[in-house]
Design a protein that fits this description.
By secondary structure, this protein is α/β, with parallel strands linked by helices. Helices cover 38% and strands 18% of the residues. Helix 3 packs across helix 4, helix 4 packs parallel to helix 5 and helix 8 packs across helix 10.
């Protein structure tokens, strides 16, 4: 799909095995990015694929996976951070780190904004150019009031702490890239669905409740906030495909939207997951105090620019993502 792994991440101005650093490499999206990079090298022969380094605060993956690097990106002194991230002369850095579900606003500021500030400073200090693919979020936009898709020219007026802190991080990357300090591209990602969805996310929470009910042989009672919104979801494999395509492109200094290009009712995804699981379930949407009766929020992503500039397009259905998520969870739990 992507050609020879040997040619994809060549070192600038030279040859040899490329090194890719994935920040948040043990997180949900980061794990998928690492796995895709490693799989590209399979069949190419030992040492032909990229050397993948997964950066995280906690102990890293097993030896058969990417090379782990335990590093607190928010607390490591600037010079030490720059040396840790760029000392081995990486070709590419993918920033999949951040905080969203069940995080305090203070934690979001640290992980989504200040971490990016420190990353940009570290890449400025690199001894040779490093390509940065920064993963932003479509929550940097405000959900459309008229139901129209948001494109890259849509004003960014986020209404949540997550959206505001992610937007601040995106602006730091864009400012540095436009000054010529770093080579970077921002991908504004829609909601990602697939294996490993965190338990604190909507689909992760529902899947874990279904698994528990299945193990106990009972009907699952799933209590959720009202599911009135319509959101753009993208399969994890398609999301990673966009990241790898962006890494190989020469597009820089701008934002590209990455999504399925279609908003779906969030409730329909929950129902789809229940159907795929085969577990009897009863969903209870608990009313929220002060919730209005207006039209549901809709956030659909216009992905035409990513098609035009990267030649990327999503290929998988949401049914595939949900089925993969349930299969992965069932296999991990032995059911």
């Amino acid at each position: 799909m992507f050609g020879s792994a040997e040619d994809q991440y060549v070192t600038p101005g030279g040859s040899g095995r490329a090194r890719v650093v994935v920040l948040g490499g043990t997180g949900f999206v980061g794990r998928h990015v690492c796995a895709a990079l490693l799989s590209e090298g399979e069949g190419e022969g030992k040492g032909k694929g990229p050397d993948v380094v997964a950066v995280s605060r906690r102990p890293g993956p097993p030896p058969s996976g990417p090379r782990p690097l335990a590093l607190d990106l928010c607390r490591t002194p600037p010079a030490e951070l720059a040396d840790a991230l760029t000392g081995d002369r990486p070709t590419l850095v993918v920033n999949a780190a951040g905080a969203v579900w069940a995080a305090t606003e203070e934690h979001m500021v640290a992980a989504n904004t200040e971490l990016v500030r420190r990353l940009v400073d570290a890449l400025r200090r690199a001894r040779r150019p490093v390509r940065l693919v920064h993963l932003g979020s479509v929550n940097e936009y405000t959900p459309s009031a008229d139901g129209r898709p948001v494109d890259e020219g849509t004003p960014t007026r986020p209404t949540t702490a997550y959206g505001r802190t992610k937007l601040a991080g995106t602006e730091l990357v864009l400012e540095a890239a436009r000054r010529g300090d770093i080579d970077a591209l921002v991908l504004r990602m829609a909601n990602v669905a697939g294996p490993g969805s965190p338990p604190a996310s909507l689909l992760g929470r529902v899947a874990h409740q279904l698994r528990l009910a299945c193990a106990e042989g009972r009907t699952a009672e799933i209590r959720l906030k009202p599911l009135r919104a319509e959101r753009d979801f993208i399969d994890a494999q398609d999301a990673v495909g966009a990241v790898l395509t962006a890494a190989r492109s020469d597009v820089g200094g701008r934002v590209l939207n990455i999504g399925s290009g279609e908003a779906v009712p969030v409730r329909s995804l929950v129902d789809l997951l229940i159907k795929v699981s085969g577990v009897a379930a009863h969903v209870v949407e608990e009313p929220e105090q002060g919730a209005g009766d207006g039209p549901p929020e809709r956030l659909e992503v216009d992905i035409r620019l990513a098609r035009e500039l990267l030649g990327w397009t999503p290929r998988r259905r949401l049914e595939d993502a949900v089925a993969d998520q349930w299969r992965d969870l069932s296999e991990a739990s032995g059911h």
